[in-house]
Amino acid sequence: xxxxxxxxxxxxxxxxxxxxxxxxxxxxxxxxxxxxxxxxxxxxxxxxxxxxxxxxxxxxxxxxxxxxxxxxxxxxxxxxxxxxxxxxxxxxxxxxxxxxxxxxxxxxxxxxxxxxxxxxxxxxxxxxxxxxxxxxxxxxxxxxxxxxxxxxxxxxxxxxxxxxxxxxxxxxxxxxxxxxxxxxxxxxxxxxxxxxxxxxxxxxxxxxxxxxxxxxxxxxxxxxxxxxxxxxxxxxxxxxxxxxxxxxxxxxxxxxxxxxxxxxxxxxxxxxxxxxxxxxxxxxxxxxxxxxxxxxx
Length: 297
Prior knowledge:
Blueprint: H1 4-31, H2 35-87, E1 108-109, E2 119-122, E3 125-128, H3 133-138, E4 154-155, E5 158-159, H4 160-177, E6 182-186, H5 191-202, E7 204-207, E8 211-214, H6 221-232, E9 239-242, E10 245-248, H7 250-258, H8 262-270, E11 276-279, H9 282-290
Helix pairs in contact: 5-7
């Protein structure tokens, strides 16, 4: 039979074991409801939501600034066109000058004088017909020597056809900017464009990938290049845009790549719209270079 000391020791150990189990089980459940834990979790969530709101506000401000800039440029262009139209007085139609009085408001030609081209003899007097602007420039009288007049209605110094073309360019430009956060305006024959595309597409992995627009193959290429010049101040290609802001051309991309600043530049300007920017593995780069895709300025 065990002694009383052993029985007391065993009972004490059993009681301690039960207390430890109860403490551990209750402590795990109380941790998630403790004031310290709840305050910490709430602070972390508030910080994350604040950062997300700040990023969204920054992106919206950039988009709003881009839209306001395009509106200002469009307004300046329209004002300039209106001013040019106001300075040039409208030319009267040739038929309006002969609607009243003598059909040929000229001095009569003396009798017996020789009839020449552009003059019409009426009764015993001859009247000279005023020559149109095209006839003055040509100086040759022959059948069909009248150039067709423009049928486009001019409003505010700008024809309707030009306005429609400008609207088409603006619509196409907006659609291109919606293709992704990173747009590369390029030309297929330009070596600087090839160099920029090689660095961005072959040496780096960017998600979403850059959207390339070949201006020499686009039907509105010249108009897009003019709109790009108004927006960024750069007319030459390549022109790389991130969220509507230009980071330069081929030499600029190469300099950022050599200085190891291209990833940080794309990440900072792209924000949350660009989810991944990293270099391609060296083995893959060597394979690309062996295929002859190394471009020099």
